[in-house]
Amino acid sequence: MFLLISFxxxxxxxxxxxxxxxxxxxxxxxxxxxKIRDSFNLNSSLVDQYKAFLINLVRGNFGISYTYRMPVLSxxxxxxxxxxxxxxxxxxxxxIAGFFLALFSVKKINGAFxxxxxxxxxxxxxxxxxxxxxxxxxxxxxxxxLFPSSGLSSFDFSxxxxxxxxxxxxxxxxxxxxxxxxxxxxxxxxxxRENLEDVYNKTFxxxxxxxxxxxxxxxxxxxxxxxxxxxxxxxxVELGILFGGALVTEVIFGLPxxxxxxxxxxxxxxxxxxxxxxxxxxxxxxxxxxxxDLIKVRVDKRLLKSTLN
Amino acid sequence: MTSKLKIWHLIIAIxxxxxxxxxxxxxxxxxxxxxxxxxxxxxxxxxxxxxxxSLIDSCASAILVVxxxxxxxxxxxxxxxxxxxxNFTSAAIIILISFFIFAPFAASSNPNFQQxxxxxxxxxxxxxxxxxxxxxxxxxxxxxxxxxxxxxxEVVKNTFDESIIFADSIVITKVATIYQKGNQVILPxxxxxxxxxxxxxxxxxxxxxxxxxxxxxxSRLVYGARISLFVGLGxxxxxxxxxxxxxxxxxxxxxxxxxxxxxxxxxxxxxxAIFLVILxxxxxxxxxxxxxxxxxxxxxxxxxxxxxxxxxxxxxxxFFISAKMSGLSGYRLLTKEVLPLILAPVVVxxxxxxxxxxxxxxxxxxxxxxxxxxxxxxxxxxxxxxxxLTEAWWMIVPPGLCLFVTLYAANNLGKEINLIFNxxxxx
Lengths: 309, 427
What we know:
The structure holds 2 protein chains of 2 kinds.
Chain A: H1 2-14, H2 30-39, H3 46-58, H4 72-107, H5 112-126, H6 129-143, H7 162-200, H8 203-210, H9 215-228, H10 231-253, H11 258-267, H12 271-299, H13 301-308
Chain B: H1 7-21, H2 23-42, H3 44-49, H4 53-75, H5 88-101, H6 103-106, H7 117-120, E1 127-133, H8 144-155, E2 164-167, E3 169-172, E4 176-180, E5 183-187, E6 194-195, E7 198-199, E8 201-206, H9 217-251, H10 255-270, H11 273-284, H12 288-297, H13 301-314, H14 318-325, H15 330-366, H16 378-386, H17 397-421
Antiparallel strand pairs in B: 1-2, 1-8, 3-4, 4-5, 6-7
């Protein structure tokens, strides 16, 4: 984490271009220009700059966005909740859909359902999210006119009641959620299917069957808990990919989230905002990885022992 | 799956098809090469100054399009890989590679070719436009260099061609009247090229339509394959070198160095690569080579982990210790003792890495941080097509399909190689 911050600082310093130049116009007097340059703190020694940078980060002060003319943190505050909610809904969809698909296809290995879903999951895994998103817009909103192609709310949003508003949000989020979730569903499906198949072939399941437990009971009480463990670490990795995917999806569908903010900041060369956005997203991913690790340790106590040793 | 068709059938079929479709161009290219070879002893500095990427490109693909089928046919019994049976994956990969090598012949025009934009922009697939050929204002040259330039003009595809005009319909009376979308152009008869007493009017077919600047999408796809493969190969090579050398460096001596390098790797692994890539590209500007380098630097971590763990376990084996005792240098130890043993996981990892690099390049291009506008990239094509979503679906679907097929093939290839190296997985 600390190394990461230093790396960011290093990148920032060696990047070409002087941020103060953006605020200095040729009309200004040289004295004022020098003052502005001073305010960017670029003339002091590198160590001092690094110290100031660290202190600012700890205080949550990323500087002032060039385009929004507001502190970076308050800009991010407007955009962050959407991305968090959006990604977590998609995360839930991925896990639940992947889980049930895997469960159904394991019921009859190499059956028709299993074969088609396995083939489809390979395809879904290979489709890049932006190709999928644009094609969905093409089919569902441009050709069939079923779903809106962009934005989060309808034109006459303010006149709606609460429930209408909720359904309006949901209506607008159908396509983005499909785009974001599909490849994740494929990943979870693949892992879960393999795990479930493995566990079903273990001898203890045979033993349980011999003891006369019903198939439903075996699945619910013995197979699923055993198959789900390795999934947690996959989920931790997937979350990082999810944030990256949300970035592209938000750009396609014009949703007000972190991804679009980041891309716009990059395109308008708004460096403080870029740094802030990447930093916050990185912290989120690291935190989610940490959470996955903690859950893993909690589920499987043996891991804790091995790490402590 | 064993079909009777093998890989070498497809390779030869592609080469012969290209030869038959472009026989005129191939012959011209060969005469260009002969003239060029004659110029070299005569006027050395002039000849050197004419060498450019597109010239070498055309000549090389003209030579290869003849040599490759012959070699494949002769070597098919000896080289095992030509006898792999043909399926979706291998066919897709071979077509991509042939696009990569034979781009000048496979494409029908330069990817940035533009002429009469109002006439050719946003044409749907399989549409064709009438072309009237004008006289080129050039005399038949006698000396070698003049001939060379005339031939070069025909062989190397330019981004413009002043000797043709696209039109909706052409009426020829005493003058030629050309209709272009309600616009009427009258040309005097002596500017038009005649052969056997008739004006030369052909039709140009746009297989996948054209984009908003009237550029042929099919040609852009072919050259886009080149960019994708090039970016993929370049950054995978960088990852390979980094992962291999760092992994060996960390695993072989162990101790302090190992700890530091492993911690740094963990740091990179914990941070999602896409944000880092975007950040670096945003700060330093994007071009083809920065994209390759940054993607290469963002992908070495998994390879490092594989190499390091393998080296750590190999270090205690007897054969490694005896090799070390006999005084081999670190480099020799790596290439002679370690590499052959860890080849399988490394190759599989590289193939998967390759797929993800292509995807990342396309995503970056899509976000406007890709290889830049001077190279046609699939991601950039999709991004451009987004603005014309309702009127021109053909700007999005072909590059999207290409991207999908490439990724699917790369994933499958990785899996198949994995199966070859670990037959036990077949189960």
